[in-house]
Design goal:
Blueprint (H helix, E strand, L loop, with lengths): L1 H43 L1 E6 L3 E6 H6 L1 H17 L5 H12 L4 H12 L2 H7 L3 E12 L5 E12 L3 E15 L10 E10 L2 E6 L4
Antiparallel strand pairs: 1-2, 3-4, 4-5, 5-6, 5-7
Helix pairs in contact: 3-4
C-alpha cells in the first residue's frame, strides 16, 4: 500500500513538472513571438540612409512625418532663394534657375520667361548686379490639399552706384510627389504667382 502511495506521489510530481514545463514553454514561446513582432514593427519604422557612402544614419518614419511641415517650408524657401538669387555670371544664373524649376510646375517657367523677355538676366550680367534674397517667413496651410502657401521676403539688389531693397510676396500651392535627387522634399509648387515685388528703399553706395 505504501509503495502504491509513493508511486502515486511520484506520478503526480511528474505531472506537475510536465505541466509546469509546458506552461513555461508556452509562456516563453508567446514572449518570443510578441518580442519578434515588436522587433519587426520597429525595424519597419526605420530608414537607413548612407551619408556620402561613409556613415550609416538612422531616421524614423515618425520623425519624417513630424518634419513634413518643416520640409514644406524649406521647399518653398529653397525655391525662392534659387529663383531670385542672381550674380553677374551666366552659368551661375542658369544653374540656379534649372534647380529652381525642378521644384515647381509650369507657373515658374512662365515667370522665368517673363524675366528673360524683359532682359533681366542680360542686365544683371552686363551691369554687374548682385541679387540676394532674405526670407522673412513662409506660411503653409495643411488644412486642405493641395497645401496653400505664402512667401514673404526681402530682395537686396546691389548695383555699382546703389543698393535697392525690394519687397517680395508670392503665393501658390504645394502638391505631394515622389522624392528624387533633384527634388528631395517630395513637393511640387503649383499655381505660383508674385503678389508684390515693389521697391522699399534705394540707398546710394558710399564709394559713388
Amino acid at each position: 500500500m505504501k509503495q502504491l502511495i509513493n508511486i502515486q506521489r511520484q506520478f503526480r510530481f511528474t505531472v506537475y513538472v510536465l505541466v509546469l514545463t509546458t506552461c513555461l514553454s508556452i509562456g516563453g514561446g508567446v514572449y518570443t513571438y510578441i518580442s519578434s513582432l515588436q522587433l519587426v514593427k520597429a525595424s519597419r519604422q526605420k530608414i537607413y540612409v548612407l551619408d556620402n557612402g561613409q556613415s550609416l544614419l538612422l531616421a524614423l518614419r515618425s520623425d519624417i512625418s513630424e518634419n513634413r511641415d518643416a520640409e514644406a517650408k524649406n521647399h518653398v524657401k529653397r525655391f525662392h532663394e534659387l529663383f531670385f538669387t542672381l550674380e553677374p555670371d551666366k552659368d551661375y544664373i542658369e544653374n540656379n534657375i534649372r534647380e529652381a524649376l525642378y521644384l515647381a510646375d509650369n507657373s515658374a517657367m512662365k515667370q522665368y520667361r517673363t524675366f528673360k523677355e524683359s532682359n533681366l538676366y542680360n542686365r544683371v550680367i552686363a551691369s554687374d548686379i548682385s541679387m540676394t534674397l532674405i526670407t522673412d517667413s513662409v506660411r503653409v496651410d495643411f488644412s486642405s490639399y493641395p497645401y496653400a502657401f505664402s512667401y514673404y521676403g526681402k530682395q537686396k539688389i546691389v548695383r555699382k552706384s546703389n543698393t535697392t531693397i525690394r519687397n517680395l510676396h508670392s503665393s501658390g500651392q504645394l502638391r505631394n510627389i515622389s522624392r528624387t535627387d533633384n527634388n528631395t522634399h517630395g513637393f511640387l509648387i503649383e499655381a505660383w504667382i508674385i503678389n508684390d515685388n515693389s521697391d522699399i528703399k534705394t540707398v546710394r553706395r558710399s564709394n559713388y
